[in-house]
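Sequence in, structure out. Go.
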Amino acid sequence: MNHERPALLIIDMINNFDFTHGHILAQKALKIAGPIKELKEQFNQQQLPVIFINDHYNLWQADYHTIIEHCRNQYSEPIYDKVLPDKKDYFLIKPKHSAFYGTALNTLLHQLKVNTLIVTGIAGNICVLFTANDAYMREYKLYIPTNCIASTDDQDNQYALTMMKNVLKAEIKSSHDLPKVYHVNPPSLIE
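Output:
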């Protein structure tokens, strides 16, 4: 019997939005922060892994507290009010777009015996898409909650969802439909 053992990935939600159209992405990130928070709470309650993967902002010696403070501004603060890592969450720094590239993510997922990923965050058409692509190549089952990813351009976001569905075989549905999708067994994933 093949049971799904999920982990929640939260990509680049710690962000200073200091780039062209950053203020637009910040508004869209705020809209998805609530649904991501709900998923995070569900995973925490079921003792399932929540993994934040974030850009490093050239702070290579930083922990997540340092990165949070570095990115704190008028755009990030409302998002921080909804979703930030807790002590029980995992946090990885990524050097490029994919959460797998140059990180220990794959090793961590194997240690946690995870075979299914719920991928959330920003930007849907860049870091989420690249992460989903690398996850697919590593044979993880993928769920992409439509209300938990955002891109600067809505058409680009929709195109990324279409690619993840058609090419990467990801399940694309609202986060509210995910509990119906997999049966979660609360026992520890680490043995």
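Check: Residues 6-181 form a domain with the Rossmann fold fold (CATH 3.40.50.850). Residues 22-45 form the longest helix (24 residues).
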